[in-house]
Amino acid sequence: MDNRSALVAGGARLRSLWTASAGMPLRTRVISTGLAVSQGKPLSELSAAELQKRRALSPAPRPPVSWVVGRVAAGAVIETVQVPVRNGRTVPTRVLRPTSGTSEKVLVWYHGGGWALGRPRDFDPLLSFLVEQTGCVVLAPDYRLAPEDKAPAGVHDCLDVLDWVTTGAGSLTSTTPRVAVGGDSAGGNLAALAALHARDNRIDLSGQVLVYPATDLAADRPYRDAPVLSGADMDAFEGFYLTGSGLTGSDPVVSPAHAASHAGLAPALVQTAELDPLHPEGERYAQTLETAGVPTRYTCYRGVPHGFLNMPGGTHVGYQAWWEISDTLRRWWV
Questions:
Q1: Could you give the angle at which helices 318-332 and 124-134 cross, rounded to 10 degrees?
Q2: 3-class DSSP state for residue 96?
Q3: Closest to 126 in 3D by CA, of 329, 272, 286, 334
Q4: From CA 149, how far away is CA 62, in angstroms rounded?
Q5: Are 212 and 7 in contact (CB under 8 A)?
Q6: Least confident window among 18-27, 112-121, 125-134, 287-296
Q7: What range does the domain containing 187 cover?
Q8: How much of the chain, in percent, has pLDDT values that exceed 70?
Q9: Is 298 helix (H, G, I), strand (E, B) or coil?
Q10: In this structure, what DSSP letter does residue 226 have?
Q11: How far are the Cα atoms of 2, 52, 250, 266 from residue 257, in angstroms, in the given order?
């Protein structure tokens, strides 16, 4: 492709992205379009090596980046520990805790990124805010990612870290921790699976925070041209995660929506974004939980895309969503 053709193609893509972001406040629209342009090649065209490089692209939360993603709260101490899991392995886990030391209140947070991208450190602003506001200890496992490790490898890591926490996480928490789970996108999927695991293994959870969760990997997603996360992106993520795994999208091992029963689960907060292909399945999952008798709070944030939790300074509702999570956790831990 010559330079002129490349410019024409780039201009057409920019116009398409700008059109797809219609309905957002201007600053959110500009940031969302800029993020999409900066990603370069579509996910479906990336090799495993290119995916690995993309995982390290997120900049540190310092000005001016922190004006968009939020600052790291001063009231949290951050470290990394190795958590023992099955088959003699360990999972590096980011720990954020109050400066005062340990706490009986524990949040296990699973990061998003389509089971193929993302890092716990990318959530330092949000998680340090939750530490500062609730006095909890947060553990964020750096679980195995696709396509190097197919499903259910990442699921196993996440469940094993939860089991380790609830049976006594060394000096990080009290001997009788009150544990909640949470996550966004793919992390919301993992948190929902962790809540099911907890119920089935008689682990008493305080609650589950599910932010624009991918709850049904067999779902039809008609909203294809969404900004930030498109239908094609979700197809690519699910391909990385499931192809060669022996699992299908309707398997309850990877899709919490397909669990045999949702009765008896921990209370839930489900947040969705209006301009997100995952919005319908997140709303359906909240309805499923309510029908099963699970105390559930559902909030759809209007005018924002997938991923808005990680750019609160670039949206009109990002910090409101942070406060809703914090307030809900505090109620669960009263």
A1: 40
A2: strand
A3: 329
A4: 32
A5: no
A6: 18-27
A7: 3-332
A8: 94
A9: strand
A10: -
A11: 47, 29, 8, 15
CATH of the domain at 198: 3.40.50.1820
Q: 149 catalytic, yes or no? A: no
The owner of tokens 């190795």 is 82
Residues 167-186 have pLDDT tens digits of 876 667 777 899 999 999 99
The alpha carbon of residue 41 and the mean position of all alpha carbons in its chain are separated, in whole angstroms, by 22
| Region for 188 from its dihedrals, namely left if φ exceeds 0, alpha if ψ lies in -120 to 50, beta otherwise | alpha
Q: Which of the residues 32, 128, 185, 230 is marked catalytic?
A: 185
d(CA 95, CA 86): 20
Question: Which of 38, 185, 32, 58 lies closest to 114, judged by CA?
Answer: 185
User: From residue 219, how far is each of 44, 222, 238, 256, 299 by CA, in Å?
Assistant: 19, 9, 11, 12, 21
From 111, 156, 197, 306, the catalytic residue: 306
User: Which candidate in 230, 276, 279, 326 is catalytic?
Assistant: 276
Helix/strand/coil (H/E/C) assignment for every residue in 166-224 = HCCCCCCEEEEEEEEEEEECHHHHHHHHHHHHHHHCCCCEEEEEEECCCCCCCCCCCCC
The domain tally of the chain equals 1
Q: Are 113 and 57 in contact (CB under 8 A)?
A: no
To the query of whether residue 185 is one of the catalytic residues in this protein, the response is yes
CA dist 266 and 281 (Å) reads: 19
State yes or no: pLDDT of 11 exceeds 70: no
Task: Compute and round to an integer the Cα radius of gyration of the chain.
Answer: 19
Beta bridge partners of 269: 209, 297
Query: Is 0.70 topped by the overall pTM?
Result: yes
What's the full length of the chain, in residues? 334
Based on the residue annotation, tell me whether 100 is a catalytic residue of this protein. no
CB 24 within 8 A of CB 307: no
